[in-house]
Design a protein that fits this description.
The longest helix is centred in the middle third of the chain and has 29 residues. By secondary structure, the chain is mainly alpha-helical. The radius of gyration is 18 Å and the shape is globular. α2 runs antiparallel to α6 and α6 runs antiparallel to α9. It contains 10 helices and no strands.
């Protein structure tokens, strides 16, 4: 597939209707990228649940390292394998100050929705929460910030764009990553899946509207920070 470029420097990268509807000659790099974006975190989480059921400091470090390695691999696939710009996944499509502003707005909206669902469902914490809370606060902070960056890179920026590129329609390009993202939180029970679905839906709708992945990362990271780090700081 011929690399697609923006029309001019600084302009948002946008797939044309013809490009987004042609599944022919999809590169192996794109298929590899989709496997990483959609399933890498699910496989890593499941492997640790099976082999290391209780979270420890060493297992948390190893898990984070594996997730970051997959994120780096995905970036290399985009740049070296697909030869596409960062704008092809929603990076660099807006000025930084706008991304920060929208990120805070997105965090507030997401926090209200997540908080309301947590109250209605009586959701507290998943089975591994007690062990997670015993980790050093600096590590918990890095984990929640990683979640904001990598999960948005995988499930919003890359998955949505590339599923459209291989020929799936708008609905399936959005639905598939959202469902996988939601059920990836199965360890917290049905309530956590519902909450993840609601948060993911808000993040997805915002990405489709603004196509600003940096704002998505900021909003996602702030919500997780408020939920997991601030209570420990003030306890």
């Amino acid at each position: 597939m011929k690399p697609m470029q923006a029309d001019d420097v600084g302009a948002p990268f946008v797939l044309t209707s013809e490009q987004s509807s042609l599944p022919a000659k999809v590169s192996r790099a794109t298929w590899a990228g989709l496997l990483i974006a959609l399933f890498a975190m699910v496989v890593i989480r499941q492997a640790f649940v099976f082999f290391v059921p209780e979270i420890t400091f060493n297992s948390a470090i190893l898990k984070e390292a594996l997730i970051w390695l997959n994120a780096v691999a995905l970036i290399l696939i985009i740049r070296r394998g697909e030869h596409l710009p960062s704008r092809s996944i929603g990076l660099g499509t807006a000025r930084l100050w706008k991304s920060i502003l929208w990120g805070f707005v997105l965090a507030v909206v997401s926090a209200v929705a997540v908080g309301a669902l947590a109250y209605v469902t009586g959701y507290g914490h998943g089975p591994g929460s007690a062990a997670f809370e015993k980790l050093p606060l600096w590590l918990i902070t890095l984990i929640v910030l990683r979640a904001g960056v990598v999960e948005e890179l995988f499930y919003r920026g890359y998955a949505i764009e590339r599923l459209r590129m291989i020929g799936l329609g708008r609905f399936w390009s959005v639905a598939i990553p959202l469902v996988i993202f939601s059920f990836g939180h199965w360890s917290g029970g049905a309530a956590n899946i519902l909450i993840a679905f609601a948060a993911g839906l808000i993040l997805t709708c915002f990405y489709l509207w603004r196509r600003d992945l940096v704002a998505n990362m900021i909003g996602h990271g702030l919500v997780d920070f408020v939920a997991n780090v601030l209570p420990a700081l003030f306890s």
